[in-house]
Amino acid sequence: MAQRNPGALFAQKSAEQEGGAARVGRLAFDAVGTPFGMYDAKFIAAVQEQWHTSLRNRSVAPGRVVIDFRLHDDGRITNLRVAEKNVDDLLSYLCEQSILAPAPFERWPKSMRESIGAPHRDVRFTFHYN
Fold first, then answer.
1. Which domain holds residue 111?
2. Rounded distance, CA 76 to CA 103, Å?
3. What pTM was computed for the model?
């Protein structure tokens, strides 16, 4: 069984968004085997941009949503599920859609496919609402 990488990557929106809206949260990313910085950075940026766009002009209460999913080497997302949440269903749904809407993602580079040695990897995103 694969272990989760204890050193999660964090992506955080700047304190001010376009239009002067305050930051609404941050996204934490934990994936099995993450030596693929460029791919992961683009992946995180796509999800984060979708999430922040969906939250524009919304008031949110503090909380978090943890989502597990499988990222395939062809960029597809499957097995997406909310592992835990302490926010309402709408905010949880926005997190799910932030992962699904930009999919499919780029195909993995050959070196990444060879290094992972499997046609997919299991990923966990944690969305933190401030």
1. 9-129
2. 6
3. 0.76
Strands 25-31 and 120-129: antiparallel
* Number of domains observed in the structure of the chain: 1
50 vs 101: CA distance, rounded Å: 8
Query: 32 near 2, Cβ under 8 Å?
Result: yes
Q: Measured between alpha carbons, how far is 74 from 87 in angstroms, rounded to an integer?
A: 32
Of the pLDDT bands very low, low, confident and very high (cuts 50, 70, 90), residue 27 is: low
The residue assigned the tokens 């592992």 is: 83
Residue 21 has pLDDT above 50, yes or no: no
Q: What is the mean pLDDT of the chain?
A: 79
Residue 57 lies in a domain: yes
CA distances from 111 to 19, 70, 96 (A): 40, 19, 29
* Cα dihedral: 91, 96, 97, 99 (round 10): 130
